[in-house]
Write a structure and sequence with these properties.
6-stranded mixed beta sheet, 2 domains, 12 helices, ABC_transporter-like_ATP-bd, ABC-2 type transport system ATP-binding protein, Alpha-Beta Plaits, alpha/beta, 318 residues, Rossmann fold, 4-stranded antiparallel beta sheet, binds adenosine-5'-triphosphate
Length: 318
């Protein structure tokens, strides 16, 4: 059984009569990478601030590592590393000096801090920039130093708010890879807030989709697809010539098939409950019909995300 390390129940935060977060219930397991996904103003930062005990909820409860964030924010701070989107370092200090300073603020002895800092700087690939002033670091280097900075106190959970903001694609790939690696090596729980769908998709085990303070859906990509598309969870795209009326009817009658969309005379999309690509392919082969393409279409997070927002934004802006 998985062990919940973050437990949020019926959490609500109201600002000036307007809910920023509404009735949020969510539990995140130890060792999981969970993506908080949503557009600007969705309530991601407010949720993070409540998790860290920096903002008091209007109602509901929130526990991190078994500690009540509202009652014991300091206890949470000891166990949770937070990387904000506007992270700042002392520009005139080197990467190493910045890390040692953070360690000192967290009551870590100099000796332990030195060891951890060197190890972490190596891990995040900044070994050549240890003695370089952070004012001369690129945005990507600063984010990597930021990761080392949150890890110096050996937290159980790290919360990353838009960690890839302003980094070039190569830097993004490296950073995401690093996050995954740290998660696997240290069994670290990662909560990652972002509105970059593709990045979240690459690295997160589960995702929660936030819109206007509400968690609309949560789960793995497959679970989200199932919630969203229901029975039509798989789509098999077929191109063949000819697609006869008889074959079309046979496909429609397969128990796994919920709907067949005829796109052109020679192409169809078969919506089904299971991946039955081989069954469909066999039908064409048995009839000796030339099959030029048959492929299962996977729903990506992008599609899922947009499907969730379809119609919602315009309905709710009033
Ligand atoms: N201190 C505050 N006072 C009043 N309203 C606030 C405050 N903080 C946030 N809000 C409002 O709460 C809502 C959620 O904001 P929040 O910053 O949590 O969203 P977000 O998903 O993190 O967005 P972004 O990606 O832009 O940071 C917004 O409507 C915002 O205007």
């Amino acid at each position: 059984m998985s062990e919940a390390i973050i437990n949020i129940k019926n959490l609500t935060k109201i600002y000036d009569d307007v809910p920023a977060v509404e009735q949020l219930s969510l539990s995140i397991n130890k060792g999981e990478i969970f993506g908080l996904l949503g557009p600007n103003g969705a309530g991601k930062s407010t949720t993070i601030f409540m998790l860290l005990g920096l903002t008091e909820p209007t109602s509901g409860s929130i526990k991190v590592c078994g500690i009540d964030s509202t009652k014991s924010p300091l206890g949470v701070k000891q166990r949770v590393g937070y990387l904000p989107d506007d992270l700042g370092f002392y520009q005139n200090m080197t990467g190493l000096e910045n890390l040692l300073y953070t360690a000192q603020l967290n009551g870590i002895s100099r000796e332990v801090a030195e060891k951890r800092a060197h190890h972490l700087l190596n891990q995040v690939g900044l070994e050549d920039a240890i003695h370089k002033k952070t004012g001369k670091y690129s945005r990507g280097m600063k984010q990597r130093l930021g990761l080392a900075d949150v890890l110096i106190k050996e937290p159980e959970v790290i919360i990353l708010d838009e960690p890839t903001l302003g980094i070039d694609p190569k830097g993004v790939r490296e950073l995401l890879h690093l996050i995954k690696k740290l998660n696997q090596e240290k069994n670290l729980t990662v909560l990652l807030s972002s509105h970059h769908l593709h990045q979240v998709q690459q690295v997160c085990d589960r995702v929660g989709i936030f819109v206007k303070g509400k968690l609309l859906a949560k789960g793995t990509l497959n679970e989200l697809a199932l919630q969203l598309f229901g029975n039509d969870n798989y789509v098999v795209h077929v191109e063949a010539n000819p697609i006869t009326e008889r074959l079309l009817n046979e496909i429609k009658e397969l128990p796994e098939v919920t709907y067949v969309n005829q796109i052109t005379a020679t192409s169809i999309d078969v919506f089904c409950k299971k991946d039955i690509t081989p069954t469909i392919a066999k039908k064409f082969m048995d009839d000796e019909i030339e099959l030029s393409n048959i492929s299962k279409k996977n729903y990506g997070l992008d599609e899922i995300y947009h499907r969730y927002f379809e119609g919602r934004e315009s309905n709710e802006t009033a």
